[in-house]
Amino acid sequence: MNRTTKEAIVQRYYYDRHHQLEAHLADLINAYNYARRLKTLKGLTPYEYICKCWTSQPERFKLNPLQQMPGLNT
């Protein structure tokens, strides 16, 4: 992950302030963790697992998770 982060962000972009780099790194880490398939969830991403649970037991949820999309464009 460290090499991927360094190649994807630090070497390709120029930042005026340190907090801009921190914000960009936080976005990358969130996107990575959000899209990563986990063995404990039988190969599903966390979002896919939540959607699967919602379709089988919608009464457990207050909001529709299909409309709660994390990411940079929210």
Descriptive keywords:
74 residues, mainly alpha, 51% helix, elongated
Structure description:
This protein has 2 domains: about 35 residues; about 40 residues, no CATH class. Helices cover about 50% and strands about 0% of the residues. The protein contains 3 helices and no strands. The longest helix has 18 residues. The two termini are about 25 Å apart.
Largest sheet: none
User: Which runs of at least 5 residues are low in confidence (pLDDT < 50)?
Assistant: none
Q: Summarize model confidence as the mean pLDDT.
A: 82
User: Total number of β-strand segments?
Assistant: 0
How far apart, in Å, are the first and last alpha carbons?
A: 25 Å
The ordered string of helix (H) and strand (E) elements is HHH
Shape: elongated
Structural class: mainly alpha
Count the helices. How many?
A: 3
Query: Can you tell me the number of structural domains?
Result: 2
Radius of gyration: 16 Å
Q: Approximately what portion of the residues adopt beta-strand conformation?
A: under 5%
Helix content: 40-55%
